[in-house]
Amino acid sequence: MALIDIIFPPACLACHRGLGRGQKILCIECESQIRKISENYCQLCGSELVDGSCETCKDTEFYFDFARSSMRYAAPLTHLIHKLKYQGYRVVARYLAQKMAESMQEYPEYQDYPYLVAVPLHRVRLRERGYNQSDLIARHLARLTNKKWIRPLQRVHYTLSQTNLHRTQRLSNLNGAFRVYKAAEIRGQNLILIDDVFTTGSTINEISKTLKAAGAAKVAALTATRA
Ligand SMILES: [Zn+2]
Ligand SMILES: [Zn+2]
């Protein structure tokens, strides 16, 4: 047994029960609660369909070519993502990237997209958190899928947290929030935006608009989870 296992007995990051041999991050019970999004989703935005129609696309114009998510944003993933974003558990990024790599295998539409672009954090928030969780995910995912992780974007506005805003507020809150500072890297290229959660799609949409205005050919998105 490694010394680290004696000092910190390995426990499930969601429910804190002890982990058995060969288990990492989540115990078997928590792992079994994860719901993948692999059927009955909107071909454009990737949301799960309700009675055959998409609530998310209904009154939004999306600039991305398509978006998909690996899993539903529910327990235990809500706990894991909270740990990743607010408690310094970088190891969660690798776990999520693994799941996303599996999804990418199932979605042939990503084949013609060689570049991964993480949703950037503003430098003030980056300083608070110490890292950008989406960068960590994109870096692992690039390694797992043989795609190239590039960083052509900056977040220039320190936007309010999107969580407590209405949909229209979310959109205006983000207007002009991102800037492409390495346009040569993306001109004529097909890019995949990477993030942890897709909620209304407003962040990914604003970035897609910005990237296309700067010359990107196509922009798709893959998020670990979908609210
Ligand atoms: Zn557990
Ligand atoms: Zn849709």
Principal-axes shape call: globular
Helix content: 25-40%
Question: Approximately how much beta-strand content do the residues carry?
Answer: 15-25%
- CATH overall fold name: Rossmann fold
- Specify the oligomeric state: single chain
Q: Using only CA atoms, what is the Rg?
A: 18 Å
Biggest pleated-sheet summary: 5 strands, parallel
Write out the strand line-up for the largest beta sheet, numbering strands in chain order: 1-7-6-2-3
Bound molecules: zinc ion
Mean pLDDT: 90
Number of strands: 7
Task: Characterize the structure shown.
- The chain has one domain: Rossmann fold.
- The model has no long low-confidence stretch (mean pLDDT 90).
- The protein is α/β, with parallel strands linked by helices and 227 residues long.
- It is built from nine helices and seven strands; from the N terminus they run ααβααβααββαβαβαβ.
- The protein starts with a helix and ends with a strand.
- The structure holds zinc ion (2 copies).
- One zinc ion binds next to loops.
- One zinc ion is lined by residues 12, 14-15, 17, 26-27, 29-30.
